[in-house]
Amino acid sequence: MATADGTYEYKLQHGDDFGRTYFRRFNDLAISSIGVGTYLGDPTDPVDARYRDAIETALESGINVIDTAINYRCQRSERAVGRAIDDADVAREAAFVSTKGGFVPFDGERPDDPGEYVRREFVEPGLVDREDLARGSHCIAPAFLDEQLDRSLENLGVEEIDLYYVHNPETQLEARSREAVYDQLEAAFTRLEERAAAGDISNYGVATWNAFRVPGGDDEYLSLPEIVSRARAAAKAAENTATHFRAIQLPFNVVMADAFTVEAHEGPEGPQSALWFAHEAGLNVFTSASIAQGDLAETLPDDVADRLAGETTVQRAINFARSAPGVTSSLVGASRPEHVEENAAAGRHDPLGADAFDAVFE
User: Kind of pairing, strands 29-32 and 23-26?
Assistant: First the structure.
């Protein structure tokens, strides 16, 4: 697992190469404010090899945050991350590794009949209760997450995962009420608190796509205050002295800024955006889609681009995402070493200050 000594030694080795606040705190860890995502790409051997090279390059270049999920590329992304960590000339204690569970994963390749695969591999053996499935492919029942966490530990080849997310719980809203989903999350969190106490994960969180950045009346909305409350209840049920719920993940970029602009979460003094609520609640925020899955690689709105530091459009887009209040690290998908090098170089430039960031929206 990542340790304070390991990550601070990493920061000492690389910190002089980057601008201010490039390394940020996660609990007692020092982690890079740019991370590598592993979502995109076909489930093939050549893409596996590119990801391994890209992740090794990242770890050796000052990026120590690696994000994946068991369902990404049919479990191949997790396995590529594990091999890269083994091969890189960087101690495991310096690397911050996160993964996710929730979507039923394929194994190595996409089956011809996904529904039949889910039935044969998960429902019939009793790993998934059909009633717990949403959209035929998503489950956050405690027993299922238990099994998925075990698989992720094996895929990654690690003894402890630094951050484990419940993946897109808003998917469950297609099958049940919002209150029922909160109950599901509390049960899932209780199991994750137990796994944290057992030393299998260090922290957990919720990774979402729409849930935290839509208005309160939206069909996919989930309340951050309610989720925090459920996490506290889970810690109590697991007899832990404090919750291990430490992070959220959500999309944030120049053209998807809802997490900053939509005030849908009730704070002490009224409604707040997801970013502000998380910031004041002491939650770490990891942004996904920081360059809109490549859409911002070529162009940014002129009035925004002019305010941002960076030698390329990609670097300016990354620096926008990591300038937002409360953001710990901005994730960028990269399966080629040259892209990783360009992304890392964004960190040589300082992010926007709070006033300059706010001015973008005036």
Answer: antiparallel
Sequence-ordered list of residues with C-beta below 8 angstroms from that of 312, at least 6 positions apart, any chain? 342
3-state helix, strand, coil in the chain (%, to 5): 45, 20, 40
E strands in 220-345: 245-251, 263-267, 270-273, 284-288, 327-333
Residue 272 CA to residue 260 CA, distance in Å, equals 9
DSSP category for residue 254: T
| Cα–Cα distance, 262 to 271 (Å, whole number) | 9
From the list 142, 144, 133, 204, the residue with the least C-alpha distance to 171 is 133
* Cβ-contact 242, 250 below 8 angstroms: no
The two structure tokens encoding residue 214 = 């839509």
Tell me the per-residue pLDDT of 98-155, one tens digit each, with 9 for 90 and over: 999 999 999 999 999 999 999 999 999 999 999 999 999 999 999 999 999 999 999 9
Nearest-10 crossing angle of helices 178-197, 224-237: 40
Neighbours of 136 (CB within 10 A): 13
Among 13, 40, 24, 90, CA closest to 285:
24
Half-sphere exposure in the Cβ direction for 60 (13 Å, CA): 13
pTM above 0.70, yes or no: yes
Q: How far is CA 241 from the centre of its chain?
A: 25
Return d(Cα 94, Cα 9) in angstroms, integer. 8
Residue with tokens 């419940």: 166
CA distance 290 to 189: 27
